[in-house]
Amino acid sequence: MADYKSARMASDIQRIIGGKLRDLKDPRVDAEKLTVVRAEVSRDRSVARIYVSHLGGMSAAKEAVKGLESASGLLRHEIVAVLGIRKAPELRFIPDDSAEYSAHISRMLRDLNIPKDEEEKRDDEDINA
Length: 129
What we know:
- By secondary structure, the chain is α+β, with helices and mostly antiparallel strands.
- The protein is 53% helix and 18% strand.
- The radius of gyration is 20 Å and the shape is elongated.
- The chain starts with a helix and ends with a helix.
């Protein structure tokens, strides 16, 4: 995203698609577990790449992408209506595993066996340093 208008349009598209997920009737699109991670719009604003992540993992994200691709016409119509532009960019949905990766990192941090007294000592050392 090289310019301000493309960045602004990308954030608007991310917001619009994220809000519209609940309205989609496709069983592959589970709105409670699906997240629009980010959107990128090309400099000429003809193509938008939307990265979606699913809490069920990468295979569930790939299935959700198929459902979103089938609903891309409805989503493009919504983008045109909300943003007031003549032509919506082509939507390309890309599965992303960031939700799964962050859950993995959280599990790793939770599984660390740091005794409470050592943890408090480290915090005190960090404050005094």
